[in-house]
Amino acid sequence: MLPGMGTIRLREDQPLDLSLSLSCGQAFRWEQREGWWEGVVGESLWRVRQEGRRVIYSGTTAPAVRHYLALDENLPVILASIDRDPVVYRSIEACRGLRILRQDPWEILISFICATNTNIPRIRKMIASLARTFGKRIPGSDEAVYTFPVPEALLVSCGDHLAACRLGYRDRSVAGTAGMVEEDPGILNRIAGFPSNDARAALLSFPGVGPKAADCILLFGFHRLESFPVDVWIRRIMHDHYMPPPPGAKGSSEKEDRRIREFGQEHFGAYAGYAQEYLFCARELLNGVKVRSPGPSSSGTPPARR
DNA sequence: AGCCAGGTCTGCG
DNA sequence: CGCAGACATGGC
């Protein structure tokens, strides 16, 4: 029997969609293999799988899994609180069981610096490349598996290694942010204790972190569930279904994104981040845009736009 | 081949 | 301030 193997029984009233939660774009290191989800959390390789109301795991412990999957949070209450209009209602129906994970702030900080102006498949590759190049190998796994690199690890090598990770122009931001965290190792812990607006301001001081990345880091790395990141998809959904862009508005602008974010937080309330994530995950349904997801996907005929 | 992607930063007016 | 371009790369 594998170390740390066990089963968690989900409460009848607490939905979970493990696959959706791990693949929806809030975490980038989970892969489906042989019926399991495999991912590195901290120093360990986890294997997780869901069978109905059971979560089966190995390589970790039940409390760690419960914490990571936020099984302590009352999802029906959260979903009821954001269920304020037919659009988000449809998203909830489509994605019920999606939970916002509790992930490591440092890993999320670097991940969402990498996530700017690119697509999810490539983000996954960039993160995998960083881990393979700078992380520690985790023993006891058939495939080579690596931890997410600590800040110092991203700095020691001569920079050629970073270039080899193919981050594009983001490599400077990753290196700069790693340098700042290495010089001030307590900074993320302090940010974790800040009120959200101060935490947001602090995150904006890292190179490569703008308003959208800061909100993603707050939501996924610091579990600030009121955060409402506005990316190209959310902007599209909000303009199509909630608040048409002002006449004469050209494409995207920081001002317009701020307007969308403020509307989202006002409209959805304290759990606006959950609303954002459900809308994001239902974007194909809502906007009729073909979206790729990892793993073998059985694609029917995509609905026409609108 | 060309448009686009979970945007950010810089340099203008 | 607010806005336009540049930006490095690869998915589709």
Q: What radius of gyration results from the CA coordinates? A: 19 Å
How many structural units, i.e. domains? 3
Q: Might you state the CATH topology name of the largest domain? A: Endonuclease III, domain 1
Order of helices and strands: EHEEEEHHHHHHHHHHHHHHH
Overall geometry comes to: globular
Determine the mean pLDDT: 92
Secondary-structure content class: alpha+beta
The second-level CATH architecture of the largest domain is Orthogonal Bundle
In helices, the fraction of residues equals 40-55%
Which range does the strand content fall in? 5-15%
- Order of strands across the biggest sheet? 1-5-4-3-2
The number of helices is 16
* Unreliably modeled segments: 292-306
Q: For this structure, what is the CATH homologous superfamily of the largest domain?
A: Hypothetical protein, domain 2
The largest pleated sheet is described as: 5 strands, antiparallel
DSSP strand tally: 5
| Distance between the first and last residues' Cα | 51 Å
Name of the top-level CATH class of the largest domain: Mainly Alpha
What this model shows, in words?
This protein is an alpha+beta fold and 306 residues long. It folds into 3 domains: 6-72, TATA-Binding Protein (2-Layer Sandwich), CATH 3.30.310.40; 74-97 and 223-291, Endonuclease Iii, domain 2, CATH 1.10.1670.10; 105-221, Hypothetical protein, domain 2 (Endonuclease III, domain 1, Orthogonal Bundle). It contains 16 helices and 5 strands. The chain has a 5-stranded antiparallel sheet. Strand 3 (36-41) and strand 4 (44-51) form a beta hairpin. The termini are far apart. Mean pLDDT is 92; it is low at 292-306. It binds a DNA duplex (13 and 12 nucleotides) through helix 6, helix 9, helix 12, helix 13 and helix 14.
